[in-house]
């Protein structure tokens, strides 16, 4: 592992070694003669000895060293991270290639790993087929976001008319939903969990150019309740798994990063409220708070609206259902209601974040879609069934779970950080 602290006394040498598997380090007790000049904070070492019961109450075991070998030395004067210093995240962001050595971001990566496994396990145990949807695609998923277009280096140099490598313009995917809908014609439950890309040139704390999306489609359902129940069960399962597998890592965030998030995060294990979009607008209109965007029926809910609604409902996760027909994409199922025409759509709002998941029942009735969009028809001609689905931004879930202020801190490699490794 790597040396997290070194303390040499006259009769004993104490080391704390960490191999990245846990926030906890292993204490090594050695004879001072085993120490060398290269045995410094940050150095990589191999220690051999005997595990013995520790006399200290704060730890169960310690390693009584017989040999210590420095595998990789570390110059403590040039190493940007300092022993026993709690570096702010603003400082750590300057060194993207070393951020995983920091306790906070190391904990986050372990949590991310456990949450990923929990999500896959949830879908597997509930009978879902995992689909690898394409990363390179010719569709833009009905305008889900700005697209990154893919070109070869030769194409990029040519300014005149050109032949595309794929014969048609190709893009990095913004969503796997349309491909999942194809698969939902053969499998009753499918999901994907992969990278998606949005070319919004934003440096805000809420946006990423590359992020991971959890998406699922459920066939043979005519109830929006079925969709919201899967969303709720997924969130509860992933969160309870992370809390049980990474208690010390989570506690670090609740102690030093976002103390107020502990109660909020526990809330997602128990209570979920449900209101309609129309009820949400009425709540916002009656609010004493002044909003930058005036709430009106027929307009999108802004982040400030979503956060107020969650607060109004007691800082617990909140499902908002049945959005205006004209606000949502063509594939969402028409509720055939009036006079306020709505579709069977749902957004899950959570404390501190706003929207975390979005989904809907899909419009399976061919004659309803014929009047709206011709290119979508083939999916509905051959064995079409009532179905629905949802998507959840994985990094936004981690941001909610841990109370991280800047979403760029929850990804292993921030934008363009790979250049520092060249």
From TrEMBL:
Residues 109-412 form the Aminoacyl-transfer RNA synthetases class-II family profile domain. GO terms for molecular function: asparagine-tRNA ligase activity; ATP binding; nucleic acid binding. Coiled coil: none annotated. The keyword Transferase does not apply. Keywords: Aminoacyl-tRNA synthetase, ATP-binding, Ligase, Nucleotide-binding, Protein biosynthesis. GO terms for cellular component: mitochondrion. It is an enzyme of class 6 (ligase). InterPro entries: Aa-tRNA-synt_II, aa-tRNA-synth_II, aa-tRNA-synth_II/BPL/LPL, Asn-tRNA-ligase, Asp/Asn-tRNA-synth_IIb, NA-bd_OB-fold, NA-bd_OB_tRNA. It holds the Pfam family tRNA-synt_2. Its EC number is 6.1.1.22. GO terms for biological process: asparaginyl-tRNA aminoacylation. Belongs to the class-II aminoacyl-tRNA synthetase family. This is asparagine--tRNA ligase. It comes from Eudromia elegans. The gene is Nars2.
